[in-house]
Amino acid sequence: MTDRVRFRPFTGDIERRVEMSRAPLALVLAQVRWPEHRHLAAEMGEFAQEFGKHLDHFPLSNEITEQGFHLTPEGVKPVNGVIYEWRSIDDVWVVRLGATFMSLYCAPHENYRYAEFAEHLDIVLSLLKEVLRIQVTERIGVRYVNRLSEPEVMAKLPDIFDPRVLGMEGLASGSGVRLVSTLSQAVYKVEDVNLQVRSGYLPAGETMDPAIEPIGRPSWILDLDAYQEGRLVYAPEQVREVASRLADTAYDFFKLVLKVQGEVELDGRS
Prior knowledge:
Layout: E1 19-20, E2 25-33, H1 38-53, E3 60-72, E4 75-87, E5 93-97, E6 101-106, H2 114-130, E7 136-148, H3 151-154, H4 157-160, E8 182-190, E9 193-202, E10 219-233, H5 236-257, E11 263-264
Parallel strand pairs: 1-11
Antiparallel strand pairs: 2-6, 2-7, 3-4, 4-5, 5-6, 7-10, 8-9, 9-10
């Protein structure tokens, strides 16, 4: 396979790579959303069952009932939806499927590489076309949530990351003053790609997203959510290219705010 051209909108640097003995990832997520398709609304259970038959690496399955509300001319009506879930035996990989979306999750594990993530993504993207017969998409997203919590690393964060992503950390310099929590958010637009950046300190036992389990000590989060919106005729190859571009955007922002050169010794274990 020919090596693809990397997208580096923030640094313009396609040569430097961030080398980590262990990536501080709490979550990696790719998601494809589409408008409601009539045939899925009528027979979603049957399509989901066929979809799951082809997920050989995801033998564990589950159904999650979601409750919500829908505004109608007659008022607010409750709506129940089912999300179908498949997991790998070690719970590292998760696929979730609903009537209007598919999500691929990756939990933290040793030696994460995007190439591995892309292999799993290729499989589910093909199934969306072959089994679910998705015709168009309206949103494609790739999200990386980095979490650091080791006390020795937390103490060195100003030496590792650009202070602008550390929020008000630098203001807590008085005697006996300790920063408990802070959260910063920004949205960037690069051509047709949007990047939402959230960063902040969290106290023990708190999380800023239900998808991320809280931990028993303070942590610092760098949440990079890259996405492209707009209706596209569905083609697995095109979605794959978009996802790679989104992953590149998030990765390049990480490079931008990382002050340390060469191999980075960060431990994201929680």
